[in-house]
Amino acid sequence: MANYCVNLAKFALFLLLQVQGAAASMNKSKQDIKRRIEELRRDVQHHEYLYYALNQPEISDEDFDLRMRLLQKLESENPEFVTEDSPSMRVGGQPSDAFQSVRHPVAMLSLSNIYNEEELTEFDRRVRDGLGGAVFKYVCELKFDGIAVNLCYKDGAFIQGATRGNGEIGDDITVNLKTIRSLPLKLSSPQPAPEIYIRGEVYMDRNGFRMLNEERQEAGLANFANPRNATGGTLKILDPAVVACRPLKLVCYSLWFEGIADKGWAQSKALEWLKEAHLPTSDEIRICHNRDEVVQTWQEWENIRSDLPFDIDGVVIKVDDITQQERLGATSKSPRWATAYKFKAERATTLLRGISLQVGRTGAVTPVAELEPVLLAGTTVKRATLHNEDEIERLDLRIGDTVYVEKGGDIIPKITGVDKERRAKDIQVFRIPDRCPVCGETLHRPEGEAVRRCVNKACPAQVQKSIEHFASRGAMDIDGLGESIVNLLISNGFIHDPGDLYNLKEKFDVLRELNGMGDLSVNNLLSSIETSKDCSFDRLIFALGIRHVGSGAARLLSRRYLSIDQIRAASQEELEQIHEIGPRMAESIIDFFRSPSNIELIEKLRNAGVRLEGENISPETQPLEGKTFVLTGTLKNYTRVQAGDRIRALGGHVASSVSAQTDFLIAGPGAGSKLKKAKELNVTIIDENEFTELLNDPAKIVEN
Ligand code: IVH
Prior knowledge:
The structure is a single chain. The chain is an alpha+beta fold. It has 5 domains: about 1-90, Helix hairpin bin (Helix Hairpins, Orthogonal Bundle); about 110-340, DNA ligase/mRNA capping enzyme (D-amino Acid Aminotransferase, Chain A, domain 1, 2-Layer Sandwich); about 345-445, CATH 2.40.50.140; about 460-610, 5' to 3' exonuclease, C-terminal subdomain (DNA polymerase, domain 1), CATH 1.10.150; about 630-704, Rossmann fold. The protein is built from 26 helices and 22 strands. Strand 13 and strand 14 (about 380-385) form a beta hairpin. 2-(butylsulfanyl)adenosine binds near residues 143 and 164. 2-(butylsulfanyl)adenosine (IVH) binds near residues 109, 111 and 148.
């Protein structure tokens, strides 16, 4: 049914049925046909409801399509029985030049927003004061992140639907709304008034949105930035046949008719009625008797937020009783009886102030978006990665644009789109420069790659990044050698590559005079540089910064080869024979040892006494081979890195999360969810003392 737009196979089946049906219908009287059409309409409407509103279909897509096509056929043969509310009329409208304006019978107000518990307390106090101490209830609902619409039903038939517009006047989008299959064109249950207005939200769920963008990408069209934009963009399309192919959904959350308050209605009753009338509603509805219950609801829903198949951006809190709502009244913009308690935004709109270029360790130039600072999921975001120039082109990003920034599953914010409507006319297209922004060398973009590279090995940016990498925790772990100190040492001409670090001790007196370096910090730095000479062989390999060789591959190489000279002597074919080392990595290793500056670096390290070889590995020295460990909590005598190194040195594997494959969980104080999971999975849990014992006598414990 979801693929209702195109389905040739079903159509063939339909033709067959049509021939049979045509013969049969000839015998029927007009009255029979009318009855049959009405029956079919009810039947199709019922199955649309089951499928689109309840998500519980009872018949197959094919079966549904056949019934719908039969209805269409009977209607086209008997035009005198065609009615506007027939489910066959969903895509009945013709493309138009513009939407008509509609004046809303009651202004479509917006909601005030609150962002924290204090503001909720304040809202609750105002409500209680406004009701003069009367008993009241709140209804809490999800705040759907879509496009608000107002639907008008007259004598049970859907006659008009409009956007909110400026609250007073909106666009008549009836033909587009009719294409939404969960929107009943005719209401079956009794109506409380001849004319009723229903407010709801049109949205796209994440899956529909993703599929729509995939289709657009295939067709070479620009992606929509987010489901809300895709919905807004779709509702503005003037051809309902196009709209019908978009995965729009509807959820209804309020009802209005003349005299609703006088008849003693409440929001909760309105929601029940909407459900009974087969309008799509949300199951997530809570009655709360006080502020604390609202807080609890808000917290619970914030927790389920990412599990929902669609976007929500908060909880709407409404006073239930409509007479009480009227007593509280509204400002010119929003009601005083309701508010939206927002979640921390995971998406924000901000200005793209500029695009800066970062040169990485391997010379790759990465564009970075410089943003007008904006609050996103509780933190201020000023920059976002743009990956490469293709991404800038894909997003059609220009400096000065208003952009959407999102924080998804990962922590790094990204730009997902541009609000083109807010783009200035004379805005310039952005082009990545041809030259390295740091050293001025011409940038190269190798065939088939999305990044441009600075090929100057002496480029200060590359030197800086490669020394930072060499000293980093997972590599030689040189404490006190962060970005600013590396910069200081380079700019003063003390170091040109990581090998120079080991000559720094001769410059003690000059170093202590450097800005920001005192005796103590120079001493500490020199001593950690000294200690690093004895770093394990795998760390040294990783520290060299060979392209594509991460810490895992470095470990594999250190097990296979006994020294750096042996790795240097290995052929591409030989390297590729190592499990998990592919042609790209092997080629990069070969390339690394071809470069004279890298050979010079290795010689500097050798002369300084840095360990360039591994320990002889034998089964006796690898007693933890095949065992997987996970670390949690804090250990007194080891950092995470040290503990991991010790395990790996004995052949064990360290994983980041507990699974059925985990053999041991090493749990220090402060252990949380990993400990819980390990208990559930019956994983052996050991404390720090047992861990030390295990390191001293691995065979004994592992056998147990
Ligand atoms: S009630 C008088 N309920 O939020 C207020 N609105 O920022 C009527 N929205 O324009 C709105 N979910 O588009 C209401 N459960 C819900 C909602 C909801 C989303 C939207 C609606 C409104 C906006 C206000």
